[in-house]
Specification:
- The protein folds into two domains: 2-587, Quinoprotein alcohol dehydrogenase-like superfamily (Methanol Dehydrogenase, Chain A); 613-700, Cytochrome Bc1 Complex, Chain D, domain 2 (Orthogonal Bundle), CATH 1.10.760.
- It has nine helices and 37 strands.
- The chain has a five-stranded mixed sheet with strand order 1-31-32-33-34, with no helix packed on it.
- A hairpin with a 2-residue loop joins strand 7 and strand 8 (146-150).
- Helix 7 crosses helix 9 and helix 8 (653-660) packs across helix 9 (679-700).
């Protein structure tokens, strides 16, 4: 009760003036208030993580481990965006608010499913070319009488909750070429907090705060220093500059705040995670072995002013894409016989961290998945002991890293149950071959990695492919954050399964990449219920109650990085199509889904290979740099984007040129790559695709 009282007092406090000394709008007295969000989940679900602490735990217990077998579909809504669905719905005053792919927002009657209004920010489809991982959006924020959504093209938009009418819109990114936004805004004390994606492009990470009524920027904190010749914005940037080398600012630096943001009303701090250093390969911009602050870190700033408070870097020298943008969860735990307010984090790098929420002090950390890039953490500082072979740019050798770029845990939300004391993590067993491309010195177009993705692409060898498939799995992990031990797990065939929700009914809900929505006993992991969703699930569910009846809601729709980028491995999770829907369940629900469409089945029938090995070598390198992110490793696509091995366009040089050079399909997101490739390059890519298609056709016959 003491903690709740402190949180409530802090949340109700009036905001101070901004850094420029100008007054800003007061927090709302009506509608969704700070006090309501601080109170956490009840009958309503008011914020992305369920409350300021982002525990994703509900005290509702009408649905329990004893009766969840009676759960049925109450209603569903088909969505008009056939891309990955990653948002968590919110519910207030009988209305569900949800964002979908392409940053669209919809409001439904939470009891009947009737559509109240729909909003489309009209994101240009060409925006897809500067997004690493699909046209996704992770959710909206509610505050006062408004709904806030961050659009993929870098805008922050406020809508009227009742009508969906736009109240204001502002561009928050420095430019709309190297930045995009996929994350959900958070709101507290009259401020809307948002960052951006883009750490693989020429982006300089930041988090910014905006006045909830006007959309005016109040403060901005950068996560990497800019050009020293321009001076530094604050002491934090000056200190960070000492950890960089070379001309990092010419590449932006990375460190983007693309997902995890949490406001702590007890300390009045905003804690957020940052993305990888950019480029990945430190040799690309001569950044050397410096820590590259504040990338791959948790950073805390004052909520009112944006002033630096503390940081904890989870992955110094990040060269593996180990973003720290996974959800941050706040809780009160007994550590060493003493009650501590802690921040808990399970980032990509495979270690589970417990930090002091006020100071950032490292309290404990252990690996929760297979890790081979470091030999554990220093028990006092939490700094990883990086293995020499993991510094692939120094050895010049391929490093098979575990985890790989997808991470042991990425953005998929985890949940913490105060009843069991366990964190429920949608975890992965993944790996990636890293090989430096030291010839790469940067480009004005596309991703800035400095990695040779062509050489290490999946080989056309059945035995090696099977080894890779066998080693790649997923799991639902119940983790004890005090003991830093696994309590139970459920194995999944592949990675990229949905986020979790835990409830007082001794339940954990999770969707699977294979297309099931499941309920497990929170104390044991026993599966108690499942529903065939007809499509892969990557989002997390939420729960609410109306008129004494409890509902569980989830967005379903396959997509995201795992489908787009991982090639052959994407099918390991379950070759499910994208059928985007909002599903809502209750005890005794009787609704049924229509029959699903058949899976896309393609037969390889490529033209004969007529190119040269020189062309194939060039095409393989270009494909790895510019095409693989969307069309899959080794030209093996997932379900969302075209599999170019099957495309009839590879039979005609002029067709490939029209698309790659002339931008004939720019309206679908396939923009012109004329800034990076010429006609000879386009032909080299075509010959590589023909060669790959013939290789895999031959494999099918063995």
């Amino acid at each position: 009760m003491i903690r709740q009282g402190l949180a409530l007092l802090a949340a109700l406090a009036l905001t101070a003036c901004n850094m420029a000394g100008e007054d800003r709008s007061a927090p709302p007295a009506e509608g969704v208030t700070d006090a309501m969000i601080a109170a956490g989940v009840g009958d309503e679900w008011l914020s992305y993580g369920g409350g300021y602490e982002e525990q994703r735990f509900s005290p509702l217990d009408r649905i329990t481990d004893a009766n969840v077998s009676q759960l049925g579909l109450a209603w569903y809504a088909d969505l008009d965006t056939a891309r990955g669905q990653e948002a968590t719905p919110l519910m207030h005053d009988g209305t569900i608010y949800v964002s979908t792919a392409w940053s669209m927002v919809k409001a439904y009657d939470a009891k009947t499913g009737a559509l109240k209004w729909s909003y489309d920010p009209q994101v240009p489809r060409e925006t897809l070319a500067r997004v690493c991982c699909d046209a996704v959006n992770r959710g909206v924020a509610l505050y006062g009488d408004k709904v806030f959504v961050a659009a993929l093209d870098g805008r922050l938009v406020a809508l009227d909750q009742q009508t969906g009418k736009e109240a204001w819109s502002t561009v928050v990114v420095p430019d709309q070429e190297s930045y995009a936004i996929t994350g959900a805004p958070r709101v507290a004390k009259g401020l809307v907090f948002i960052g951006s994606a883009g750490a693989e492009f020429r982006a300089r990470g930041f988090i910014a705060a905006y006045d909830w009524q006007t959309g005016k920027e109040v403060w901005r904190f950068h996560t990497v220093p800019g050009n020293p010749a321009d001076g530094f914005e604050n002491d934090a940037m000056a200190r960070a500059s000492e950890t960089w080398a070379g001309k990092w600012w010419e590449f932006g630096g990375g460190g983007t705040v693309w997902d995890s943001i949490v406001y702590d009303p007890v300390t009045n701090l905003v804690l957020f995670g940052t993305g990888n250093a950019e480029p990945w390969n430190p040799n690309t911009n001569d950044r050397g072995l410096g820590d590259a602050l504040y990338t791959s870190s948790i950073v805390a700033v004052d909520a009112d002013t944006g002033e630096y408070a503390w940081h904890f870097q989870e992955t110094p020298e990040d060269r593996w894409d180990f973003d720290s943008n996974a959800q941050i969860t706040l809780a009160e735990l007994e550590i060493g016989g003493k009650k501590r307010r802690v921040a808990m984090h399970a980032p990509k790098n495979g270690f589970y961290y417990v930090l002091d929420a006020k100071t950032g002090e490292f309290l404990s950390g252990e690996a929760f998945a297979p890790v081979n890039w470091a030999d554990g953490l220093d028990p006092k500082t939490g700094r990883p002991r990086i293995r020499l072979e993991a510094r692939y740019e120094q050895t010049g050798q391929v490093f098979i890293g575990s985890p790989g770029l997808y991470g042991a845990h990425t953005w998929h939300p985890m949940s913490f149950s105060p009843k069991t004391g366990l964190m429920y993590i949608p975890a992965n067993n993944t790996f990636m071959p890293y090989l430096a491309d030291d010839e790469f010195k940067g480009s004005d177009f596309g991703m800035q990695l400095g990695i040779d993705t062509g050489t290490v692409a999946m080989p056309a060898d059945k035995s090696l492919r099977q080894q890779a498939l066998d080693a790649t799995t997923g799991m639902l992990l119940a983790w004890d954050p005090v003991a830093q031990k696994e309590r139970w797990r459920v194995e999944h065939p592949g990675p990229s399964n949905g986020g979790t929700l835990s409830t007082a009914g001794n339940l954990v809900f999770q969707g699977t990449a294979g297309g099931e929505f499941r309920a497990y006993a929170a104390d044991s992991g026993n599966q108690l219920w499942s529903f065939a969703a007809q499509t892969g699930i990557i989002a997390a569910s939420m729960t609410y109650a109306i008129d004494g009846e409890q509902y569980v809601a989830i967005l379903v729709g396959w997509g995201g990085l795992w489908d787009l980028n991982t090639g052959l491995l994407s099918g390991k999770s379950g070759p499910t199509p994208n059928i985007s829907r909002l599903l809502v369940f209750k005890l005794g629900g009787k609704e049924a889904l229509p029959p699903p469409p058949p899976l896309r089945e393609l037969v390889l029938d490529p033209p004969a290979f007529t190119g040269t090995e020189v062309q194939v070598s060039r095409g393989k390198a270009l494909y790895g740099q510019y095409c693989a992110a969307c069309h899959g490793d080794a030209a093996i696509a997932g379900q969302l984007n075209p599999d170019l091995r099957h495309s009839p366009t590879i039979a005609r040089a002029e067709a490939i040129r029209a698309i790659v050079i002339d931008g004939a399909l720019a309206h679908n997101g396939m923009v012109s790559f004329s800034k990076a490739v010429d006609g000879n390059d386009a032909e080299a890519i075509r010959q590589y695709l023909i060669k790959r298609a013939n290789e895999d056709k031959a494999l099918e016959g063995t």
